Structures are given as C-alpha cells and as structure tokens.
Amino acid sequence: MSHSAGEILYVITDLKLGGVPLHLHRLVCAMCERGFGCRVVSLGELGPVAGMLRDDGIEVTGCEGRGGWDVRVIGRLARIIMGSKPDIVHALLFHANVAAREAARHAGFPTNRVICEIQTVEVERRWHLLVDRFTHQGCRFTIGNSPSVIEHLHRHAKIPLERLCLVPGGIDPEPALKAEPTDRSVLGVPPDAPIVLWVGRLDPVKGLDTLIRAFTETAKKTDAHLLLAGDGPLHDHLVRLIDTLSMVGRVHLLGSRNDVPELLEAADVFAFPSRTEGLPNALLEAMAAGCPVVTTDVPGCRDLIQHERTGLLVPYGDADALADATQSLLSDRRGGNGGGTDQSLAGRLGDAARQEVTKSWHIDQTYASYAKAYNTILADSPPR
Question: How large is the angle between the packed helices 127-135 and 147-156, nearest 10 degrees?
Fold first, then answer.
C-alpha cells in the first residue's frame, strides 16, 4: 500500500501493556487511516502491544535494549533511521525521547523533523526534567497531552513555549454509551450494594493506599463494595493492606479487564485519587459513562474535572476528604437520579461530565491535531 501523506517512524521505550503503548497503537491505526505510512520501533521489550500492532499490519522492530541505561539502543536506532528514511521521527516516553534525539543526530536526520512526546507530569524522577532541559533542542517540539503537562515542562524543564505543542488527549465515548452493566454476581458484589470503582495501573503514584483507607470509613456507613480493576507492581502490597484493614470481601482486586465500559455502567461512583497524571484515560472513560467522579485536585485530573460541575475534587492524600466526598455521592445517587429540576448532584455531575467529553475531549479532535502537526512539519521543512 502506498502512502502519500508522509512516512512516520514511531519510537517508544517498550510495548508492554500500559497507557502510552496502547495510546500509540490507537494513534498509529488512526494515522494509517489518514494516509500516513507508519512503522514502530521499541527500544526494549516488545510485549503484547507489538502483537496488536502487527495484527493491524504495522511493521514493528525491537532494539533489544536491556533497561533505560542501555546506550547501545542509540546506535541501533540510528541505523534504523538511516535504513528506513522516514519523513518524521515521533518518540514517546522519556527514554525514547532522549534516544531519538541522539540517534537522529548520529544518523544525520534533521532535528526539525523529530517530535517528542510526554504524557505525564513527572514528580518522582525530577532528573528527567533536567535531561529534557538540556536535550530538548534535539527535536522540533515536545508534545504534551494536557495544559498541565505543557505548563510543567515549561516551568520545570525550562522548555520554551515555542518548542512545546499541546495535543489534547481524548477518547471515543461510543463504547461507554453502548455498554450494559456487568453482572454483579460475577464480581462477588450483592445485587443492591453500591459500587465504588477505580481503574488503572496498580502503581504507587495512583494513591491506592489512600483510597482503601478512605473506603474503610465508607464501608462503616454503607454496604458499598470497592472494585480495583487493573494490575501492576503494587498488587501484593494491596493484598496485605486489604487483609490488615479487614476489608477482605469488601475490596475486590479484579486484575486486568477488557470490560471497563460495562464496569463503569454498573458503578455508582468512580474514585481516582492519583498523586499526578498527564491526562488520564480512565477518568475520561468514567466521564463518558456518566459515572459520578471523585478525584484529586492535581495536574491532569483538574484539567478534566471542574469541582461541583463535572465531578468533585479533593486534596491528594486526604483520606477523610475522599471518604466524605465518596459517601456524599453514594447517598445522593442512591437517593434518586430522575433528571429534571430534582435531579441529584451525582446525576448532574455525571451528565455534565458526559457532555464535556463529547464536546472537548473526543478522540477525533486529538487525531486531527496530530495530523495537523505532522502536515505542518512536512510543509515547513524541505524534503531530505
């Protein structure tokens, strides 16, 4: 198949299951539909997302890197760039960004055709920001998926605004609109028990300790159950915490799921107490489902949620505030969601959030912004 729009070489740190690799899979498929030629390079482990890409006819190459400090991947990537002769190199995630900048230099590839992308507000590895500060000139610009990411890179990595590009993230709300509630009996939840749901990667930055401790207070006052959908390095720790707090049977670790829209349709409240985010898809999906949201007033989350209009914001790490907000929505939602002037707060928040996703955070707008950025580079830069 010939491509007239331009050839893009995507570079990513790895293709394990995760938010950015899955985002890349969707992005590549969308750009292929728009006429771009797409190829993907993974610095490290290929993982399941590589299989998904190949199933869609996308060529995937691995650099066989053994960790973030394996500098051999720079030479390997440089040879791939020289051999494939792309029109644009688009890197995603910190290690891939640094490798792409260096590899392009070694390959003699013009820096004004290199794009880097960051999808989170980095608060744990501050040295990443220092590296970005001194290497960002090795690319045309760095994409951020939310205003908070752009502001963070400008303020803390000292990247000039003219070298930053906002491409707002988004989702397709259609799966949420079509979903039917999942069977509660399969989840181990009584038919009439309220459900508090969380979805994501079991990672320390997600605030799950706070969520479970907050839920112990909710469980004293309601018959609610907490469902945690996802997997990750914190799994064993959470199992012990749930046992220590005597929450076995009330807090359920569901593991990775492919029925998130159905879970959201069954849930009464979506709780998302992260320390930081970029632009969380899990939160967008909850909004699209019209599930009332309680989340933390931190970057990424506050880009999406306006307090008491599209959800409730609470301070990060404040278990009491999280418990109070969750319980207020549970009580409110169970009391009725009949619409009209008597519609509950939970119902109004859910409806407003659903409308906000459709209006401002639809994936079609995201892909249009990517295509515009690519076409701008192709038009402004002379061909190689």
Answer: 80
